[in-house]
Design a protein that fits this description.
Layout (H helix, E strand, L loop, with lengths): L34 H19 L4 E2 L2 E2 L1 E4 L4 E4 L2 E3 L4 H22 L2 H5 L2 H18 L2 H9 L4 H30 L1 H9 L6 H21 L1 H7 L1 H9 L6 E4 L1 H4 L16 H4 L23 H4 L20 H12 L7 E4 L1 H6 L7 H23 L3 E7 L6 E2 L4 E12 L5 E2 L1 E4 L5 E4 L5 E2 L3 E12 L7 E10 L2 E11 L4
Antiparallel strand pairs: 1-2, 3-4, 4-5, 6-7, 8-10, 9-10, 10-15, 11-14, 12-16, 13-15, 16-17
Helix pairs in contact: 2-16, 4-6, 6-7, 6-8
Bound molecules: iron/sulfur cluster (SF4) (2 copies).
The site of one iron/sulfur cluster has 16 residues, from helix 13 and helix 14.
């Protein structure tokens, strides 16, 4: 009789967060502890301090960083980038994307587990509050299944209220990165009618963050985040990701209790966060004792033993869980570890693949282009164009004049008084109105006449240069044309 074919890829037909009826399977990840979690906690403190603290840091009276996408107004390390510098921003975004691609090809989704704000807030803020109020995974399950008592109402309402307060805080912080902390304080202190648009944005952001962390959770990483979707095309068998060592772990099996022999792990099981299903030191064929703890701690509900999956956010929870189990059963840690598929199968890691080298080349090229454009970027941008539709005017027998429109963009955070000078030792510039002072991070426009002696004109169209000074210092020179009679 033929043996039945076992579909080992069956796990790919469904996702852990959806049941057979198509309804949401709520994930209750078990609390985790361990060296990776500890380091992730430290990193999260640093990143949270940066996120919440940086909008308050000012340099020369303006934020150190500002990303006002709506007005295309950016401040990076105190340097102001006007809409005219948008190409630099686009270039920086391209460089960042290539860097992320390169990083992902080499190290997989490590960004998601360690740095992504979604993971940081979910696992290091919201989840910890949930554990604090409702207890570990099983306690949460019990509470959800229990009838509505006063205690349950207090816990549930209290938790949601705290969640919402944090969402408001997060929303305000994100707004501060976009419009600046001073504007956010105005929003919070001035009458709503005066700032109803900003206030509406703040409320909308708050509800969005609350919805994401209280309800959407891992769905963002599994189904919405475009970066997560890209993993399937970026990862290859040399990418270093959270991997289960199937060579060492399989065939998995629960360890049997040995008659008359005390279990190795018993001594520590009481004080531990984990309890092994069957605790004994008897060696199974593979090192995996099939305890299932790597699945129980997983915030996306997957079984990493099935191999690399799109849902894995590389949060390292399963690594910590498995390491603790391995210590208890007196086996080497690292059954689940950072490694590549080839590293596990062949015992060798290969980082410098042709693909990695190609991305590295592109990245170096983009960084070079970015540095070049940054180095030639000036604090002021000037345009002087002849007023359309107007020919030259005769000032007297010897002199002609042309009318021009000018535009001066000040990219600094200080007002800039402007002076125009001709780069010739003949002719003069006459401004229409007063000499402009361009406000900080702003633009000034106006008109001016350039007068030149007729005998200095070579042709109908003559190239001339105008120098732009501020407080006696040459800022830049611009070329324009001067129209005269046909010779
Ligand atoms: S935690 Fe480790 S030993 Fe337990 S099932 Fe997962 S891989 Fe196997
Ligand atoms: S498989 Fe492991 S690393 Fe991946 S999401 Fe689950 S717990 Fe985190």
């Amino acid at each position: 009789m033929e043996s039945p074919i076992i579909d080992t890829e069956e796990y790919r037909d469904s996702i852990a967060t959806v049941n057979k009826d198509g309804k949401r399977n709520w994930i209750y990840p078990k609390k985790v502890n361990g060296k990776f979690f500890k380091w992730r906690t430290y990193v999260s403190w640093l990143l949270l301090a940066f996120l919440f603290g940086m909008p308050f840091v000012k340099y020369d009276g303006q934020p150190l960083f500002l990303f006002n996408l709506l007005q295309r107004d950016f401040i990076i390390f105190g340097a102001h980038f006007a809409p005219q510098d948008f190409y630099l921003f686009v270039l920086a975004m391209l460089t960042f994307i290539v860097f992320i691609i390169l990083f992902t090809v080499v190290f997989g989704r490590v960004f998601c587990g360690w740095v992504c704000p979604q993971t940081i807030f979910m696992e290091m803020v919201y989840r910890k509050i949930e554990y604090w109020i409702e207890g570990d995974a099983n306690a949460q399950r019990r509470l959800n299944a229990a009838p509505w008592t006063t205690e349950k109402v207090i816990k549930k309402v209290g938790k949601q209220a705290i969640f919402f307060v944090i969402a408001i805080l997060v929303a305000n912080t994100f707004l501060a990165w976009i419009i600046g902390v001073d504007e956010v304080i105005k929003l919070a202190t001035e009458p709503i009618a005066e700032n109803w648009q900003g206030f509406t944005a703040m409320i909308a952001f708050s509800f969005a963050f609350y919805f994401v962390f209280a309800w959407m959770r891992e769905q963002v990483c599994i189904a919405i985040c475009p970066y997560g979707r890209l993993q399937s095309v970026l990862l290859d068998s040399n990418s270093i990701v959270v991997h289960y060592d199937h060579v060492r772990g399989e065939p998995r099996g629960k360890i049997k209790k040995q008659q008359g022999k005390p279990a190795l792990a018993m001594a520590s099981a009481e004080s531990s966060m984990f309890e092994l299903p069957v605790v004994n030191a008897q060696k199974t064929q593979g090192d995996c004792v099939d305890c299932g703890l790597c699945v129980k701690v997983c915030p996306t509900g997957i079984d990493i033993r099935n191999g690399t999956q799109l849902e894995c956010i590389n949060c390292t929870a399963c690594m910590d869980a498995c390491d603790e189990v391995m210590v208890k059963v007196n086996r080497d840690t690292g059954l689940i570890r950072y490694d590549s598929f080839n590293g596990i199968e062949q015992g060798r890691k290969r980082i410098l693949t042709p693909r990695v080298m190609a991305y590295s080349f592109l990245l170096v090229l983009l960084i070079g282009v970015q540095i070049f454009f940054m180095s030639i970027r000036s604090d002021v941008q000037v345009l002087i164009l002849r007023t359309p539709g107007i020919l030259y005017q005769e000032v007297d027998d010897q002199t002609l004049s042309n009318l021009y429109n000018y535009q001066v963009i000040n990219k600094t955070n200080k007002p800039m008084p402007i002076e125009f000078r001709l780069v010739t030792n003949y002719g003069q510039i006459k401004l229409v109105g007063d000499a402009p002072t361009v406000p900080k991070a702003s633009m000034a426009e106006g008109a001016l006449f350039i007068e030149l002696p007729k005998n200095q004109l070579d042709d109908r169209k003559n190239r001339i240069k105008v120098a732009i000074y501020s407080e006696g210092k040459l800022l830049t020179e611009v070329k324009t044309s001067f129209l005269g009679p046909i010779k």
